[in-house]
Amino acid sequence: METNQEESCIFCEIVAGRAKAHRICDDDLSLAILDINPLSKGHCLVIPKRHVPWWHDLTDEEVESLFRVAKKASQKIMKAFSPDFVAIYARGRRIPHTHIFLVPTYGGDVLDRFFNALEGFQEATAELTNLKSDEELGEAADLLRSA
């Protein structure tokens, strides 16, 4: 990435210590912080310390670190808040610096309702139902294996 893009990245500013964040845990390559727009109390973000827009462009070591720190932060979330589980998902569209969401989730809360609705949509629409056919799944698998 160009230096000016990194300098304008809030996550790079946090890593460098120039922007405030509630740090939870880290290692040499990744950092867990509280999200400033939480979906639930204890909602964390895990970010690589190097500016990389998409997680699939991280090095193998950075991926291992990201998930190691995510696991450690999730264990802390479970101990501190006792949620039903910690939802994990990757984002990067709004802030182009890889980040993983760790959201303490409870039955019936906003994230639980969202994923239940998404699963209902996934299982019910004709367009997505067609993707479940053996032919479609085989074609997708062949394309992925040859990529």
Automatic annotation (TrEMBL):
PANTHER family, per the entry: ADENOSINE 5'-MONOPHOSPHORAMIDASE HNT1 (PTHR46648:SF1), HIT FAMILY PROTEIN 1 (PTHR46648)
Protein name, UniProt field? HIT domain-containing protein
GO BP, sorted A to Z: nucleotide metabolic process
* Residues the record marks as active site: H99
Q: Which Gene3D superfamilies match?
A: HIT-like
Q: Which residues form the HIT domain?
A: 10-112
GO MF, one term, reads: catalytic activity
Highest rank taxon of the organism: Archaea
